[in-house]
Amino acid sequence: MINILGIETSCDETAASIVQDGRTIKSNVVYSQMDIHKEYGGVVPEIASRKHVEVIKEVVEKALQEAGMKPEELDGIAVTEGPGLVGPLLVGLSFAKAFSYALGKPLYGVNHLDGHICANFLAFEDLEPPFLALIVSGGHSHFYEVLGYGEYKALGGTRDDALGEAFDKVARLLSLPYPGGPNLERLAESGEVKYEFPMSMLEDDSLDFSFSGVKSAIRNFMQKEKITEEEFPHVAASFQSNVINVVSEKIRRALKQTGHKKLIIAGGVASNKALRRRLDEMEMEVYYPPIHLCTDNAAMIASAGFFAHNRGKTASLELNAKPQHGGLST
Ligand code: KG4
Ligand code: ZN
Fold first, then answer.
1. Which residue in 146, 115, 151 sits closest to 293, CA to CA?
2. N or C, fewer C-beta in 10 Å, the chain?
3. Closest ligand 1 atom to 273 CA
């Protein structure tokens, strides 16, 4: 049995987890800084870095304790190398490198997006590639063909705002506090789909996404029509319905173009219940992780680390932060 310690610090969660054989969570500790960043309306990178430094040792100790393991019993250490905020990433990387060196255990650098996809392997023990994957997070809206464990073919992605970013920006227009996505979802529950905004489908065969248009359309509409607070739930519901329509249509296209019948979704926005309901109604086999594994966590990083281990993809101590880490590849 292979036990990998995962460390994730790419944004505002300090997280550590131990996962066995890429599938079984032995411990999963997430320290969220959300309350600290809330008053600024978003994540402040410098504050996030400092907080990661303060708590990372404790978070890793807790992960070991909850798994009932000693550091020497670990088989390797996986850490997010990017994409993400450079300061926060460096905290996790420095800790992981030092721990790996001190213990003499292999180090694995994990692409955060690879982690999000692997969250599904934790949730569904029989799930195996190949399948189609859609990552919808704060920074990405991306389709991949998952050909094997850790083997990806990029199909299409964000041209401007990612889906989570669009949720966050529209939430701000509706005076909702950070984090925008879940708050907008809650507000939409009490609204009706009353307004129509342009649906950005791009070219006929395109699997790219563009969500900045709908955000601008909503901003202009609210200014022009002098939309007041009573209408906010309807604006939220109309926005959410618009983007869910776009996403489901793009999924239909992607399945048709690739011939896949199985889809997994991953990333923060995959926790949106209205999106999940719509996907459940579509004709396909669909998987999404439970909410605590959709948003940032280290179990997904440990899982991806296990598959890197299986492929012999160890990292050296030269491993550095890749804030703009591009798409996944084979
Ligand atoms: O994957 P994640 O935790 O971090 C990144 O890797 O970016 O995703 C965060 C994003 C944020 O934009 C957040 O507003 C969005 O996911 N999000 C949601 C929901 N929960 C989180 N968006 C819509 N509905 C939700 N329930
Ligand atoms: Zn993420």
1. 115
2. N
3. 26
